[in-house]
Design brief:
By secondary structure, the chain is mainly α. It has 21 helices and two strands. 62% of the residues lie in helices and 2% in strands. The longest helix has 30 residues. The N and C termini lie far apart (106 Å).
Length: 504
């Protein structure tokens, strides 16, 4: 069947609809183009009008070919620098740069940048630290007044945070930064003493939170500020307030685990054992001190039993594995090179701290056992504790290790020096008991001279009697840790603040 031809009316209707569709299409094309662009082409011939080739003509292919370029064809352009747009980002960048420049990476400071922008007190304390580190450089425009201005702001905002019941983590960060700031300006001070006790108060307050484990920040601060758990109680003649499972069982926070040459679990094991000794040694020191003035058979039994328990809580394999990954190199510094021609080089600060704290705590414990073997020989021998000769051999080995490791620690600034000083105290104390370096033919007088010079690099005492002042500090501390009296700079720094004195 044939289709009937269209009528004139149908053709007219179709033409009108086609015209309407074309007009609508052109309107849409114009709407897509740039405003005021009258040269833009649309439709099937758009590519040809724009000079594009469909790939079938030689002329089109030649027009699309990219000209050959050589290195000299490019013009030099200025390096584009990224400048953080927000105050927080800028502060974070400055803090990270300061940590790298002052070799404070691989420490608890690595946890601080992520907390910036959440607390005004943290931001102000971080800015104070940055300014103080810059002020320590000789060629800087940062003034001490500017540093103290940020420091004062941090204290004011910290007091405000305490009134608002801010988180323990935030307040710990702020107080920890303030302590670091104060140490940059003086070895000790009244504000430093106050803030050290503030750290104790904040850590003690965290015990109340029993429904969850200690935060990463709490554990990092606890391990960093170990003196408040050890030196403070020794000064006050009391057991450590940190004798609590929450602190004894706390795991260390290892920074930069990817850089460790020793397995992380080994480093953590060594750090945890030394942390436990730092916490439990003050009780033994208190007992030995009391028994030297008032003998009590019952107290003797308790002291010797505690000494045995602490002495047996050791991991020789962890120490050996850490030492296995230490590099031995020739000593470059003239300081002590005659007696110790070789030095230790560590891969990370974490491995260095693990060994140094292990040696210092074990030497302090060995000195106490050495003294107890003379004070209570019958009870001491009955408990099958190491005899004097064994203790002396162990302390001699560890003391030599300390002096071989000290050069690497001194090269790491405050981060390396903070744990080296307690080792120097331990070595100095052992020298008081016996000829510590007899096997190395190092005269005790020369050994003390070497210790004074190393300590001077850390304490930075001034004046004509600077070395003698270092010797006095080492002597006072070594006496304190073996059951002697409390005096000197440690007594001032860690004694209780006067009543009514707060962290401000």
């Amino acid at each position: 069947m044939q289709t009937p031809p269209d009528s004139d009316q149908e053709r007219a209707t179709r033409a009108r609809l086609k015209k309407q569709i074309d007009e609508e299409r052109r309107a849409r094309w114009k709407a897509r183009g740039p405003k005021g662009d009258s040269t833009r082409s649309f439709g099937p011939n758009a590519k040809a009008k724009a000079g594009f080739s469909n790939g079938t003509s030689t002329a089109g292919q030649q027009g699309a070919r990219v000209p050959h370029r050589v290195p000299t064809s490019y013009r030099d352009t200025g390096l584009v620098l990224h400048k953080p747009t927000s105050t927080t980002n800028r502060l974070r960048s400055e803090l990270v740069f300061m940590l790298e420049r002052t070799q404070r990476t691989e420490t608890w400071f690595e946890l601080v940048p992520s907390r910036l922008g959440h607390s005004q007190s943290i931001d102000a304390a971080a800015l104070a630290i940055i300014k103080a580190a810059e002020h320590a450089k000789l060629n800087t425009n940062v003034t001490q007044e500017s540093c103290l201005g940020s420091y004062s702001k941090a204290i004011i905002t910290l007091n405000d945070d305490m009134g608002r019941s801010a988180s323990t983590d935030d307040m710990l960060i702020t107080v920890g930064l303030l302590v670091t700031f104060e140490r940059m300006f003086a070895w000790t001070s009244v504000p430093l003493r106050s803030h050290m006790h503030g750290i104790v108060a904040l850590l003690m307050n965290s015990i109340k939170v029993t429904n969850r484990a200690p935060s990463e920040m709490i554990r990092a601060v606890q391990y960093t500020f170990w003196p408040v758990a050890f030196i403070g109680p020794c000064v006050m003649g009391t057991p450590s307030m940190f004798e609590h499972p929450r602190f004894l069982d706390a795991e260390p926070v290892l920074m930069s685990q990817g850089k460790l040459s020793t397995p992380a679990k080994t480093v953590a094991r060594a750090r945890k054992l030394s942390n436990q000794l730092f916490i439990r040694l003050p009780r033994l020191i208190m007992m030995v001190k009391a028994l030297q003035t008032k003998y009590s058979p019952l107290e003797v039994d308790t002291a010797v039993d505690l000494a045995k328990e602490l002495f047996e809580n050791e991991d020789i394999d962890a120490e050996n594995e850490l030492l296995h990954h230490v590099q031995i190199q020739k000593t470059e510094s003239e300081l002590g090179r005659d007696a110790f021609p070789y030095s230790m080089k560590f891969h990370t600060l974490g491995e260095y701290e693990a060994l140094m704290h292990h040696w210092s705590t074990r030497m302090i414990l060995s000195r106490l056992c050495w003294k107890m073997s003379a004070l209570f020989p019958t009870k001491y021998q009955a408990e099958d504790l190491p005899v004097k000769k064994t203790l002396e051999t162990t302390m001699s080995r560890m003391a030599a290790n300390v002096l071989m490791a000290c050069h690497w620690g001194l090269s790491k600034g405050e981060a390396g020096e903070s744990c080296l000083i307690i080792d120097l105290v331990s070595v100095w104390g052992a020298l008081n008991d016996f000829d510590l370096f007899a096997s190395r033919k190092l005269d005790p007088a020369k050994a003390r001279s070497l210790l004074k010079q190393i300590a001077h690099k850390i304490m930075r005492t001034a004046g004509p009697n600077a070395l003698d002042e270092c010797a006095d500090r080492l002597q006072a501390a070594s006496e304190l840790f073996s059951g002697g009296k409390s005096e000197g700079i440690l007594q001032f720094t860690f004694s209780r603040p006067p009543p009514g004195q707060d962290m401000s």
